[in-house]
Design goal:
The complex is a heterodimer of chains A (115) and B (109). In chain A, 0% of the residues lie in helices and 48% in strands. Chain A is built from no helices and 11 strands. In chain A, strands 2, 4, 5, 6, 9, 10 and 11 form a 7-stranded mixed beta sheet that branches. A 4-stranded antiparallel beta sheet of chain A has the order 1-3-8-7, with no helix packed on it. The model of chain A has no long low-confidence stretch (mean pLDDT 93). In chain B, the strands form 2 sheets. A 5-stranded mixed beta sheet of chain B has the order 1-9-8-3-4, with no helix packed on it. Chain B has a 4-stranded antiparallel beta sheet with strand order 2-7-6-5, with no helix packed on it. Helices cover 0% and strands 46% of the residues of chain B. Classes of the chains: A mainly beta (115), B mainly beta (109). The A-B interface holds A 4, 31, 33, 40-45, 48, 55-56, 91, 93, 95, 98-109 and B 30-32, 34, 41-46, 49, 51, 87, 91-102.
Chain lengths: 115, 109
């Protein structure tokens, strides 16, 4: 079974530029998550989709971050304009269903450096 | 979110067991205890989860105290590939994983 795919793996941009990350979840997984992981910290949930609808985006900085999941499969996370503090690894995860006992499967992440 | 407390770091020798403690004194009756680990330059990986009873799988064992205020992840024979950050997480909602700083495990050859 193929895992969660993310691209690009690395991205370097200057502040005030825009950037987009792509995620392809495990086939058949209805739930998709985007996390931000700053160096030395655990991942922080940014947004969660159930199929193509948003379940939770309470920690997404909506003035600069946006995400979409068209057709309930792939997802894109965008930052516009980027700030220095956005330097982090952006992780995508998916799970087959919502539930307290359900595990999440994570992709390798995209490491973003903002200079 | 219910909080967990883990040691910052632990060291182990290869092929010896590793016992990773986690305190969660404010756990509620419906919180599941999940463990994930993150190897260097990779995304987190599910290890094991439980509610009240001890659990075993091919990766590890999870021992849960009778009052559920603490738990221990047991790696039976550590290998160099087990060097990672281990996160103990209380999953109280249907979907949300709230990661702390975790325990960095170092395995000596």
């Amino acid at each position: 079974e193929a895992g969660v795919a993310q691209s690009p793996r690395y991205k370097i941009i200057e502040k005030r530029q825009s950037v987009a990350f792509w995620c392809n979840p495990i086939s058949g997984h209805a739930t998709l998550y985007w996390y931000q992981q700053i160096l030395g910290q655990g991942p922080k949930l940014l947004i969660q989709f159930q199929n193509n609808g948003v379940v939770d985006d309470s920690q997404l900085p909506k003035d600069r971050f946006s995400a979409e999941r068209l057709k309930g499969v792939d997802s894109t996370l965008k930052i516009q304009p980027a700030k220095l503090e956005d330097s982090a690894v952006y992780l995508c995860a998916s799970s087959s269903q919502i539930g307290t006992a359900r595990e999440q499967y994570f992709g390798p992440g995209t490491r973003l450096t903002v200079t | 979110d219910a909080k967990t407390t883990q040691p910052n770091s632990m060291e182990s020798n290869e092929e010896e067991p590793v016992h990773l403690p986690c305190n969660h004194s404010t756990i509620s009756g419906t919180d599941y205890i999940h463990w994930y680990r993150q190897l260097p330059s990779q995304g987190p990986e599910y290890v094991i989860h439980g509610l009240t009873s001890n659990v075993n799988n091919r990766m590890a064992s999870l021992a849960i105290a009778e009052d559920r205020k603490s738990s221990t992840l047991i790696l039976h024979r550590a290998t160099l590939r087990d060097a990672a950050v281990y996160y103990c997480i209380l999953k109280w909602s249907d979907y949300k994983l709230s990661f702390g700083a975790g325990t960095t495990v170092t395995v000596r050859a």
